Structures are given as C-alpha cells and as structure tokens.
Amino acid sequence: MNDFEAEVIRNEQIIKDFFIIEFSLSKPIEAFEPGQFVMIKIPDQRVFLRRPFSIYDLHGDSLSILYKIKGEGTRLLSKAWKGVKTQILGPLGRGFNINIPDTCKPVVIAGGIGIAGVSLLIKKLKNIPDIFYGCTEEMELRLIDHIKSKPVFFATMDGSYGFKGDVITLFERHFQGYNSPIYVFACGPLAMYKSLKEKIPESIHCEVLLEERMACGLGLCFGCVKKTIDEKEPYKRVCKEGPVFDLWQILL
Ligand SMILES: Cc1cc2nc3c(=O)[nH]c(=O)nc-3n(C[C@H](O)[C@H](O)[C@H](O)COP(=O)(O)OP(=O)(O)OC[C@H]3O[C@@H](n4cnc5c(N)ncnc54)[C@H](O)[C@@H]3O)c2cc1C
Ligand code: FES
Predict the structure, then answer these.
(1) Complete domains list, the chain, with CATH
(2) Which of 6, 54, 57, 135 can bridge 64 by disulfide, Cβ–Cβ 3.0-4.6 Å?
C-alpha cells in the first residue's frame, strides 16, 4: 500500500450519473487483487475525507475507477478535468479469491454500479464466468459494454431489456440448471445480498463485496464495522478484513 500522487488523464461520462476516471500514478502498482479498493482525495477543498472506490482497471501506473455520482464528493470528482492532481491511497483491503477449484463454475452477480467492483475479477478468473447483471433500465447496460463477449444474463427493473425484475430473481431461475458446483461472487446493494442469502443454500460458496462509509480506510477508526457470526470478534472492519466477505459470515 502506498499514497500515490495522481494526475487525471480522462474523466468521461458514460451515461447519466456514471463516469470513468483514469489517473496516472506517480509509481506503478505491481501487486493487487480484484475487489481491492483505493481511497481517493477529492481534488476540492470542500471535501475533507477521502472516498473509497474499487479498482476498476489497473495497468502499471494507469488506474481507472468507474463511479456513480452519489453526493458532494462524487459530484466534485466528476468536475475534475485532465491534468488535475490529487492523492490516492491503495491498494487496500482484502479482495476476491480468484483461485477457486477448476471443478467450480464461477458465477458473477452485479447490481448497477456494483459492476465496478467485479470487472477486474471477471478479467482475472481462469474459467469463463456466467455473469448476471441487473440495473434499472436498458441505458445502464452501457456499463458492461466491455464484457459483452462473455455469457451475460440481463435483468432490468423496467423490463426495457432482458428479464423484467431484479437480478437475484433472474439468477434463481437459472440456479437449478447448474449440474456442477458453482462459486458465486457478488457486488451490489445490501438488499441484493439479503435476497441472495434467502435464495441459495449455504452449501454454495459465495463472496460479496460490502460498501460501508469509510473515514480512514486503514483499519484505524473502526468507522466501517459490520457484524458477523464470529462469536469471539463479531465486528469486522470492512476496510481491513473486507471489503470482500463470505456471504454466510456476515449478518445482514
Ligand atoms: C470498498 C468500497 C468500494 C467502492 N467502490 C465504488 C466504486 O467502484 N464506484 C462507486 O461509484 N462507488 C463506490 N463505492 C461507494 C463510494 O465510496 C460512495 O458512493 C462515495 O464515497 C460517496 O461519496 P459522496 O461524497 O459522493 O457522497 P456522500 O455525500 O458522502 O454521501 C451521499 C449519500 O450516499 C450514501 N453513501 C456514501 N457512501 C456510501 C457507501 N459506501 N455505501 C452506501 N452508501 C453510501 C450516504 O449515506 C449519503 O446518503 C465504494 C465504497 C466502498 C466502501
Ligand atoms: S474506515 Fe477506518 S477502520 Fe475502516
């Protein structure tokens, strides 16, 4: 982990509130895991705390983030022009386990901006995964243009493309059809994880990426804890022990 000086190379609106920002870092990042994140200093005095974002893509000193405008920090980030300088801390946290048994079919489930947290994973998995992607409307499918060559099952809430409804209901419909073991990776809102927990048996390996508000991102402030089933130490820091957790360990 390092605190890098970073310069904005591009900051492009993909659709509506969704942007991709690419930074040139002062040094290359050699080792990182899909699912790890960085803390970005918003290049504006009005926002003090850094904001966490998943590593969307990374090649040497070129780091990309896919983000959605949520509040003040991301709104100001979307205004950062080419050449703006800032600081980026990372890579942080524990990522996805990509070394799953060859006998398991990987399944990746993403909801909306959750695709940002699993895009690298999709690239790095040895076996081609089945991808289930859910969003509100057809326009958001632009966010997965780069992975359309892989098998993708789509769900839109308004029914404008693919299955009409939520992505977990779509996954549930396919779930019974798997006749060999699967290994599930997911990134999306908590409601998606709750639904997943209800719909698949505990025998299925399932890793999920949790998003909590963060202050330090380094495990120091305990501002990001999540309760788990661990009786000795139930509270885990999302920034340190996560952000990737075993679905069956966390209390939702
Ligand atoms: C490990 C990790 C990885 C992330 N990766 C990405 C990513 O790749 N792309 C992306 O767009 N976003 C990602 N996020 C979420 C992102 O950090 C927040 O959207 C961002 O910090 C919001 O900052 P803001 O100043 O715009 O909004 P704020 O003004 O801080 O908040 C606006 C609203 O969003 C809510 N909010 C803020 N942060 C979070 C959060 N972490 N979880 C749930 N609700 C929140 C607030 O409660 C408030 O209602 C990630 C978060 C974590 C913890
Ligand atoms: S954000 Fe400070 S401990 Fe996680």
Answers:
(1) 2-92 (2.40.30.10), 105-209 (3.40.50.80)
(2) 57
Q: What is the distance in A from the centroid of ligand 2 to the CA of 29?
A: 22
In the reported structure, the alpha carbon of residue 74 is separated from the centroid of ligand 1 by a whole-number distance in angstroms of 8
Tell me: the pLDDT tens digits for 214-243? 999 999 999 999 999 999 999 999 999 999
* Whether the CB of 189 sits within 6 Å of ligand 1: no
The mean pLDDT of 186-194, rounded to a whole number, is 97
Peptide bond just before 243 cis, omega within 30 deg: yes
Average per-residue pLDDT for the chain: 95
213 exposure class (CB count in 10 Å sphere: 0-12, 13-18, 19+): exposed
Q: 212: Cβ below 6 Å to ligand 2? A: no
- The reply to whether ligand 2 has any atom less than 6 angstroms from the CB of 55 is no
